[in-house]
Predict the 3D structure of the following.
Amino acid sequence: MADRTAIEWTQATWNPVTGCDRTSPGCDHCYALRLAARLKAMGQPTTNKMATPATSGPGFGVTCHPDVVGLPLTWRQPRLVFVNSMSDLFHPAVPEEFILEVFAVMADAHQHTFQVLTKRSQRLRSMAKRLEWPPNVWMGVSVENARYRFRIDHLRTVPAKVRFLSIEPLIGPVGDLDLSGVHWVIAGGESGPKARAVDMAWVTDIRDQCVETGVAFFFKQWGGRTPKAGGRLLEGIVWDEMPALAGA
C-alpha cells in the first residue's frame, strides 16, 4: 500500500529510494534525517543491502529499493503521490538506470499523479531529455531563499506537463521570481525543534507574485515546533490552490 501522509498538498508517499545528505541550507534541519536518526536509535534499519554512503556531509545512506518500484502498479484507487519523501530521486548516488525505471513505472501507472521534487536541479536538467514525461508526472524544485532561484531556470528546461516550486522551508526572502513556465508554488515555514522563523513579508511577497502571474499558490504552514504549531492561515485565508492542469 501507499504510505499515508500528513503532507497537505499530496495524498500518499512512495519511496523507491531512501537516504540523502545536505546540499543547501534548506536541508539543515531535514525531517527525513531526524526520522532516520530516530529509527536508528529504536534499532530499526533505515537502509538495506544496497545502501551506498552519502556523498557529502552528514546524512543517511542512499538506498535504492527495487522491491518497492512496482508498487504503484498495484494501487487501484487513483491518488496524488509524492515520490521519495525520504530522499531525492536525482541524488548523485542514485544510478541513472534506476531513475529511468522509476519514470517508466510512473508512465505505466497512469491512473495516479506523481509529484517529484528535487534540490539536484542540475542533474535533473542534464537527464531530462532521456526521461519519459507523461502528463501524470509533475516535476518540482526546492527554493529556500533567493540564492537558489537558479533551480527554477533548470526546471524550466524540463518538458513536464506541470512544473512546481516548493519554497519550503522558507528561510529567507526569495526576491523577484521568474514564474514563466511554472504552474504551482508551495510555500511554508520550517518545523521541528530548531525551526528557523519565517517572516510574514516573505510569504506575502511570494503569494502576491503568484496572484499577479496567475500561478496557483499553496501555503502549507507557518511551522514552528511542530508543522501544525503556527497553523495555515495567511491574512485570514487558507491558500490551497492546485495547478490548473491537474487531471488535464
About this structure: The CA atoms of residues 6 and 12 lie 9 Å apart. The chain has one domain: 3-238. The radius of gyration is 17 Å.
